[in-house]
Amino acid sequence: MGFVLIGVLCVVLKLGGWVQFHKDDFWAWVIVLSPFALAMVWWAWADASGFTQRKVMQSQDARKAARREQQMEALGHIKPGTKKRR
Hints:
With 86 residues, the chain is mainly α. Helices cover 74% and strands 0% of the residues.
């Protein structure tokens, strides 16, 4: 996501004429559009390596644990991992 934001910022700066990246127009656009290519490489690697799926699984496990804890508190049970009061 960071590469996409940087790419959008570079395109806005280039089209607005605020920053001149390179004198030759072709290489200027190569520089401006390179963050989008890096984002594609990052997403391909993240999907191929399982990084994305691991993040999704961790998020689901955290939601499941929070939901279970909330349900246990609603039933009047103590939180898991805490000692029982006498």
